[in-house]
Amino acid sequence: QVQLVESGGGLVQAGGSLRLSCAASVRTFSIYFMGWFRQAPGKEREFVGGISMTGGSTYYADSVKGRFTISRDSAKNPVTLQMNSLKPEDTAVYYCAARRANTVSYDQREYDYWGQGTQVTVSS
């Protein structure tokens, strides 16, 4: 069983930055494709970005492209999500997720393990 724990959420003003981290409980952390999702109140959970096992490939939702960056060192924890130029519409609970395949998926149903989520609030 893989346990994922997010950290780094908080309150920030529009235009500011936050850095989220996702730590895993397993030594074979590097075998999983990692994704970040978010869920705003009253909305469905949506894909934010993802990164391949080696960190060589990254994928982003159009809404965050150019502002958010995902990185990982396959030999270490954690996977990080650097969020810059934050907007009020980025306010949501952010989740990291692990997928037992080295291919991207934008569908939350195809992820096998989830963290508990961390709140990000961007004030205008």
Précis, in short:
This protein is mainly β. 0% of the residues lie in helices and 45% in strands. The chain has no helices and eleven strands.
Q: What does it look like?
A:
This protein is mainly beta and 124 residues long. 0% of the residues lie in helices and 45% in strands. The chain contains no helices and eleven strands. Strands 2, 4, 5, 6, 9, 10 and 11 form a seven-stranded mixed sheet that branches. A four-stranded antiparallel sheet has the order 1-3-8-7, with no helix packed on it.
Spans of 5+ residues with little confidence (pLDDT < 50)? none
Mean pLDDT: 92
Radius of gyration: 13 Å
Distance between the termini: 40 Å
Order of secondary-structure elements: EEEEEEEEEEE
Q: Per the principal axes of the C-alpha atoms, what is the gross shape?
A: globular
Please provide the count of β strands: 11
Which structural class do you get from the secondary structure elements? mainly beta
Number of contiguous helices? 0
Helical content class: under 10%
Strand content: over 45%
Biggest sheet record: 7 strands, mixed
